[in-house]
Design goal:
β1, α1 and β2 form a beta-alpha-beta unit. This protein has one domain: Glycoside hydrolase/deacetylase (TIM Barrel). Strands 1, 2, 3, 8 and 9 form a five-stranded parallel β-sheet that branches. The chain has a four-stranded mixed β-sheet with strand order 4-5-7-6. The longest helix has 24 residues. The two termini are 22 Å apart. The protein is built from ten helices and nine strands. The chain is an alpha/beta fold.
Length: 290
């Protein structure tokens, strides 16, 4: 099946009128991406270019940049959400339950959803056996939480022509790899329907800070502008807003306050449903009779 055939085109004005829980205008979900980077492999992202432009391994400075997020930044994000009574969906590499058990325990204790994000941080295209990596991730999360993941976000949002089929066969019910709409929709697989729950490459701190290198308040401004328009649009048809966070970016001292301000701006509005990805998927299935 061609990739483009998995997501038949839908014009937003033709979508059936839906109602969020409580009649909310916007459903907001946080995705906190928790990843395992191997110092011996090329880093998924870089903050410091290598001397003389020649990549060096082990890449200590860029590995350490990420590691700071796991040791310090994650806890700032956790505290910011806990203080406001909010939960997140944690997109985690499956091996996090072994390599960063303390983080997995804290997310579980906070009632966060665990969403599959690969077994370690590698694009799906680079895996020798996608299904084995998916199964290992599902098993790790089930073994740690007592429940397999309902959702999946591939590292770097990567998919090959067969990824969706492998995911659906493994019991995954929704993906965050297809940021194509303001509402969920159905993707076709060889093993039955898969939902896409709206994700984002815009209100995503990777894009704002690691790619576009905007100032520390850039993510706050973008999140506020995004929410304000979706809230306006939601008067006639509800919308879904994703806020994608990485501990080594949003959890650092010069950015965390701006994240808190963005959250507080959204919290100052009535008609907001704070949900997890799993809850959004379940709501949509019920609303559409799927």
């Amino acid at each position: 099946m061609r990739m483009s055939d998995r997501a038949p085109y839908q014009a937003f004005p033709d979508r059936p009128k839906l109602t969020l829980p409580g009649g909310a205008r916007v459903a907001v979900w946080f995705i906190v991406n928790v990843e395992e980077w191997a110092m011996e492999r090329p880093m998924p992202r870089q903050v410091l270019t290598p001397p003389m432009g020649n990549p060096l391994q082990p890449d200590l400075p860029n590995w350490s940049w990420h590691e700071y997020g796991m040791r310090v930044g994650f806890w700032r994000i956790l505290d910011a959400l806990n203080a406001r009574g909010l939960r997140a969906t944690m997109a985690l590499n499956g091996n996090i339950v072994n390599s960063y058990t303390r983080i997995a325990e804290a997310a579980r204790d906070a009632g966060w959803e665990f969403m599959g994000h690969g077994f370690v941080q590698r694009p799906m295209h680079q895996l020798d056996d996608q299904r084995a990596a998916i199964d290992a991730t599902v098993a790790a999360i089930r073994g740690f939480t007592g429940k397999g993941p309902v959702g999946w976000e591939s590292p770097g949002l990567t998919e090959t022509e067969s990824t969706l089929d492998h995911l659906r066969a493994a019991g995954i019910e929704y993906v965050a790899n297809w940021p194509i709409d303001d509402l969920p929709s159905v993707l076709h697989t060889n093993h039955g329907p898969m939902l896409q729950v709206p994700y984002t490459v815009e209100t995503n701190d990777i894009v704002v800070h690691a790619v576009q290198h905007l100032p520390s308040d850039g993510f706050m401004n973008r999140c506020i502008d995004q929410f304000d328009r979706l809230y306006q649009d939601g008067e006639t048809q509800p919308r879904v807003m994703a806020i994608s966070l990485h501990p080594y970016l949003s959890g650092v001292p010069h950015r965390i306050g701006y994240l808190e301000r963005a959250i507080d701006h959204i919290r100052s509005h009535e008609g907001v449903a704070w949900m997890t990805g799993e809850e959004i998927a379940a709501w949509y299935r019920g609303a559409m009779g799927l």
